Amino acid sequence: MGKRSRDRDLPNNEAKAVTRNIRVSPQKLNLVAQMIRGKKVAGALADLEFSRKRIAKDVRKCLESAIANAENNHDLDVDDLIVAEAHVGKSLVMKRFSPRGRGRVGQILKPFSHLTIIVRQVEAAAEA
């Protein structure tokens, strides 16, 4: 095993998962990421399960990966996790061209995105 190459850049009660080069525009992906920000993990998974957006399946896989990282790598309790952050970044853009009338050309942009999900363990409220 050996020594860690560098210290963790997240606190001990957080875990993250990153999905890179998703074939969707950042604007569309952000609509789905916005839907799960700040929610409990179980509610976020349910929302993604029944979302009608095509990209919700990939966001769900990334969220499940973050949950698995929290449980297996950092010994966090799955029932107390919330989606602390879900942010979207731009990636490459493939440029394609389509012929138009009168010898012109129409540009087609095919954007890609990155998705980062950070889950945080919050203490359950003390029940009296």
TrEMBL record:
SUPFAM superfamilies: Ribosomal protein L22. It holds the Pfam family Ribosomal_L22. GO terms for molecular function: rRNA binding; structural constituent of ribosome. Coiled coil: none annotated. It comes from the Bacteria. GO terms for biological process: translation. Part of the 50S ribosomal subunit. Belongs to the universal ribosomal protein uL22 family. This is Large ribosomal subunit protein uL22.
